[in-house]
Amino acid sequence: MIRSIPTETEETEESPTDAVPQWRTVSDPKQASQLFSQELLHRHKDSRSLFLCVDVRQDKEEQDRALVAFYSREGVRWASPLRCKLLGDDAAGSGVERHMMSTVIFKVISGFHINLGSAAITKIFEGESDHLIPSVSEQLLSKNMFGVAGRMVGHSFLHHGPCFPGLSPAVIHILFGGSLESTPVTIRDCPDLDIRDAVKMLDGEGELKECDSIHQLCLSWNLPAPNATNRKWLSEKLLLHAVIGQTTRQINQFRKGLQDTELWPLLIHRKDVIPILFPKESEAQVTPQMILDCITWPSSITVMLERSYRSVEEEESDVWDVCRVSGYLKSFIESASQAELKNLIKFWTGWEVPAAEMKVEIVEATLPTALTCFEKLRLPRHYTAFKTFQRDLCACILHHYSFGSD
Questions:
Q1: Alpha carbon of 284 to those of 29, 104, 199, 357: distances in Å?
Q2: Which of 10, 231, 325, 328 is the most exposed place for a label (fewest CB within 10 A)?
Q3: Hey, how many other C-beta atoms are within 10 angstroms of the C-beta on 74?
């Protein structure tokens, strides 16, 4: 339970140290976030469970509408126990929950297959990597889509799921109460290329061209017309308004969505957790060594290492199969692209977050499969060429989710 430190006028038998929750005092921000989430989920463990169901037999738009409808509900205790179900699939267990959390964060970043009048895919955030800002769409505001996005991000974080990489530092600054004057806005935060060109022109030393269009833009935002004296100042004002002025209500709505998940006390009292929730895209990347450090290899490899080549008899060929195919997996991980690594982890565990113990099993099978509930990757023993192994594994992790149980 989150409790405040007693004031001087409060009578209590507990010392201030006892009253401070552990997540407030631990030095490691990752541990603080884990402790906070565990405490909050435990506090609501007896609440009515939330059931998130998506019918995989439906098209992408219907599936995305189901996700949006789930997170659009008001008055929900988002820290309540979560139960997930993929209708039309036999999958069950924690692997489905991980898949759902991974999916909602992917949708927040890439957009929903919902046509709100302008495009087949509706993007909540726009711009380039590490400079994403909320869309200026009034329709998204009216439908509380930024609140939905905030709930999705907070909900995933509480369940130790993927975080939201790539958000603009300027937006993060305002999101957590930073002043407008000190906002670290840059030209890369502006997704509108026409406005970028106008800002660059005003900030430069060359002759002002196409002043009519810039003049109209300034007037529409209640700014004075450009001239040789105010051009530098005006470029800063235009950029700030394009990035923050136009998106203030969206940021406020997104903040409200985060607050709905009861995550806000952690973010306010532990500012060092904010970069974990909103990491840079580069910091969210997965390296081959990160994956290799988490793998529990088949026990046959240990046996193999204890024997010399000459001691292995004909009937022990299965041990060589285990070593060969395991070696193919290691080679694949070491040479894979960032997208392939994330697809592999998602196929293996249900989301793009490496598990503490990712198991490998070599079996009699046709194609690679995974038991996401147990974080176990099953690889066929029949592969005798790396290129064939690589082709099949790439096809599986790109086009299929694999769940199951022993």
A1: 16, 16, 31, 19
A2: 10
A3: 7
Contact 107, 68 (CB under 8 A): no
CA angle 237-238-240, nearest 5°? 65
Q: 174-187 burial, b for 16+ CB within 10 Å, e for fewer?
A: bbeeeeeeebebee
Does this model's pTM top 0.85? My answer is no
Which DSSP helix (H) or strand (E) runs through 51?
Answer: strand 50-55
Burial class (CB in 10 A: 0-12, 13-18, 19+), 322: buried
- List CB contacts of 350: < 8 A, sequence separation 6 or more: 94, 95, 96, 97, 98, 99, 102, 372, 373, 401, 403
Query: Residues 314, 316, 320, 323: what is their CA dihedral angle, to the nearest 10 degrees?
Result: -170
Question: Is the separation of the CB atoms in 200 and 214 below 8 Å?
Answer: no
Task: Return the DSSP state at 296.
Answer: E
Q: Which residue ranges form the domains of the chain, and what is each CATH number?
A: 50-179+248-277 (3.90.1750.10), 187-243 (no CATH), 288-399 (3.30.2410.10)
Encoding tokens for residue 309?
């080549």
The β-bridge relationship of strands 133-134 and 295-296 is unpaired
Question: How confident is the model over 220-242, as pLDDT tens digits?
Answer: 999 998 888 899 999 999 999 99
Q: Is the pLDDT at 15 greater than 50, yes or no?
A: no
Which residues does 214 contact at the CB level (< 8 Å), separation at least 6? 198, 201, 202, 208, 226
Tokens for 2?
């989150």
